[in-house]
Each structure stands twice: as structure tokens, then as C-alpha cells.
């Protein structure tokens, strides 16, 4: 089980409480598809992904980004039990979606950059530490049921 | 980087790594200046960074995984400072650039 200090929990929950899940989720997923274009391989049914502008404005990308980040919120609510929280989702990503777990790491790093751009100097090094730890734990939990 | 990824501190046992350390500031400046050289020679990174490449391969031998960690932290700092000016396109270009620099730094490792 992951150990979280009281400070880490506070840094995570206080940042999360100020996040606009819809905007942030859309931004993070769009950036994943823009910064690492090969990740578009999972979204051939999403329509126009031909340019950064198209991706940023694509309603399916935005909706899916929101869905993904909403799910991320479950980790924030269950910091002491992230493994169990993502057990089913892990199976889904392996058996149905066939997503390489490396993509979870990529998205986690991008999410942090989006948070940094949004929160500016409020996103302190201590904040980054706690959030890098969180995205790493989430990525690990999502990869855990792969076989 | 030292805060977000404590394992990176193992390469600097000889430094004072407290926040605000003069040694860290000086070294950070050195690294960023080298990135500046890279930016100016973006179409010829291998040649422009040849000496640094040798240094990292034969002398420093920093595990290449750490280049990615510094890249992440550098981009976090850029995002903090540029806010919405750190657009998706700028982000993509910078990530690609830092990745290319990292490749060059590691190219003589073996």
C-alpha cells in the first residue's frame, strides 16, 4: 500500500478542489494527442484529429478527456486504496482497450504540466512531488491487472 | 527536479541541495545555457553538443532516464511562468526538442 504523508494528501486534495475537471481533462487529453501524436492510434473513431486546433476543439476529445479526469478524481477520493479503485478499469484497458501502460505515464506527466500552467507559482515543487507520486501510483494501478 | 525526483540527488552528493542553494542556481544556469546553445544549433544538435555528449558518456554517466525527469521539470517551470502562453503547440515542440537533446547526450553511451 502506498504511504501518503498528511502534507502530500493536503497538497493533492487542495489542488484538486480547484480543478475544473471538464476543462482540465479536455486540455490534458488534447495535449497527449498533440505532443505524442502516436497516441491517436486509440482514437480513430474521434473524427478530425488533423491539427492541434482540430484536436483542441474536437468535441469527442473534450468529452473523453472529461471522462478520464473524472475517473482520476476517484483516485484523489481514495488515496489509501487506489489499487482496488482501478482494478476493473485496469482489466478493461488490458482486455478491451489494449492500451500500452506507457500511455498512462505520458498522460500523467501531461496532466501535471497542465496543472502547472493553470496554477502557476501555486504549483510549488512540493506540489509537483505529490502529484508526480499520485500519477505514478495511478499509472501503476491501471497497469496492475495486465496479463 | 531534486524535489520532485529525489533519486536525481544521487548525482550531486558534493552539492548543497537545499532550496535556494547557490550551487544549484549556478548549475541550473549552466544547464540552461547549454540548452540555449542547442536551440541555436537545433538542426545540428549532434555536432553542437558533441563535447557535452562525450562528457555524459565517459565522465558523468548519468542514466538517460534522468534526462526525461529534467525535461519534465523544465516544462513544469515553463508552464508555471508562461501559463496559457505555453500552448499545446509550444508544449509539443519543446517536449520534442528536449527529447532530441536527451538522445544526443546519450548517443555515445554504448
UniProtKB/TrEMBL annotation, chain A:
<dbReference type="InterPro" id="IPR009050">
    <property type="entry name" value="Globin-like_sf"/>
</dbReference>
<dbReference type="Pfam" id="PF00042">
    <property type="entry name" value="Globin"/>
</dbReference>
<dbReference type="GO" id="GO:0031720">
    <property type="term" value="F:haptoglobin binding"/>
</dbReference>
<comment type="similarity">
    <text>Belongs to the globin family.</text>
</comment>
<dbReference type="GO" id="GO:0042744">
    <property type="term" value="P:hydrogen peroxide catabolic process"/>
</dbReference>
<keyword id="KW-0561">Oxygen transport</keyword>
<dbReference type="InterPro" id="IPR000971">
    <property type="entry name" value="Globin"/>
</dbReference>
<dbReference type="GO" id="GO:0004601">
    <property type="term" value="F:peroxidase activity"/>
</dbReference>
<dbReference type="GO" id="GO:0005833">
    <property type="term" value="C:hemoglobin complex"/>
</dbReference>
<keyword id="KW-0349">Heme</keyword>
<dbReference type="InterPro" id="IPR050056">
    <property type="entry name" value="Hemoglobin_oxygen_transport"/>
</dbReference>
<dbReference type="GO" id="GO:0072562">
    <property type="term" value="C:blood microparticle"/>
</dbReference>
<protein>
    <submittedName>
        <fullName>Hemoglobin subunit epsilon</fullName>
    </submittedName>
</protein>
<dbReference type="GO" id="GO:0031838">
    <property type="term" value="C:haptoglobin-hemoglobin complex"/>
</dbReference>
<dbReference type="GO" id="GO:0005344">
    <property type="term" value="F:oxygen carrier activity"/>
</dbReference>
<keyword id="KW-0479">Metal-binding</keyword>
<keyword id="KW-0408">Iron</keyword>
<dbReference type="GO" id="GO:0043177">
    <property type="term" value="F:organic acid binding"/>
</dbReference>
<keyword id="KW-0813">Transport</keyword>
<dbReference type="GO" id="GO:0020037">
    <property type="term" value="F:heme binding"/>
</dbReference>
<dbReference type="GO" id="GO:0046872">
    <property type="term" value="F:metal ion binding"/>
</dbReference>
<dbReference type="GO" id="GO:0019825">
    <property type="term" value="F:oxygen binding"/>
</dbReference>
<feature type="domain" description="Globin">
    <location>
        <begin position="3"/>
        <end position="147"/>
    </location>
</feature>
<dbReference type="InterPro" id="IPR002337">
    <property type="entry name" value="Hemoglobin_b"/>
</dbReference>
<dbReference type="InterPro" id="IPR012292">
    <property type="entry name" value="Globin/Proto"/>
</dbReference>
Amino acid at each position: 500500500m502506498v504511504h501518503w504523508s498528511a502534507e502530500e494528501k493536503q497538497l493533492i486534495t487542495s489542488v484538486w478542489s480547484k480543478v475544473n475537471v471538464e476543462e482540465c481533462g479536455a486540455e490534458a487529453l488534447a495535449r497527449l494527442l498533440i505532443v505524442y501524436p502516436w497516441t491517436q492510434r486509440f482514437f480513430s473513431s474521434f473524427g478530425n484529429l488533423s491539427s492541434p486546433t482540430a484536436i483542441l476543439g474536437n468535441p469527442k476529445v473534450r468529452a473523453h478527456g472529461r471522462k478520464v479526469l473524472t475517473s482520476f478524481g476517484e483516485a484523489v477520493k481514495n488515496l489509501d486504496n487506489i489499487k482496488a479503485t482501478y482494478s476493473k478499469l485496469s482489466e478493461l484497458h488490458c482486455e478491451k482497450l489494449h492500451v500500452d501502460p506507457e500511455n498512462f505515464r505520458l498522460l500523467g506527466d501531461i496532466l501535471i504540466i497542465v496543472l502547472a500552467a493553470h496554477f502557476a507559482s501555486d504549483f510549488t515543487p512540493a506540489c509537483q512531488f505529490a502529484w508526480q507520486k499520485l500519477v505514478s501510483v495511478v499509472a501503476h494501478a491501471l497497469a496492475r491487472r495486465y496479463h | 527536479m531534486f524535489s520532485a525526483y529525489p533519486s536525481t540527488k544521487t548525482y550531486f552528493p558534493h552539492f548543497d541541495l537545499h532550496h535556494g542553494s547557490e550551487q544549484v542556481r549556478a548549475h541550473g544556469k549552466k544547464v540552461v545555457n547549454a540548452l540555449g546553445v542547442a536551440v541555436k544549433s537545433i538542426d545540428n544538435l549532434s555536432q553542437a553538443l558533441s563535447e557535452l555528449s562525450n562528457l555524459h558518456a565517459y565522465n558523468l554517466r548519468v542514466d538517460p532516464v534522468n534526462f526525461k525527469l529534467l525535461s519534465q521539470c523544465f516544462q513544469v517551470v515553463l508552464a508555471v511562468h508562461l501559463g496559457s502562453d505555453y500552448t499545446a503547440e509550444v508544449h509539443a515542440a519543446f517536449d520534442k526538442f528536449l527529447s532530441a537533446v536527451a538522445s544526443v547526450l546519450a548517443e555515445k553511451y554504448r
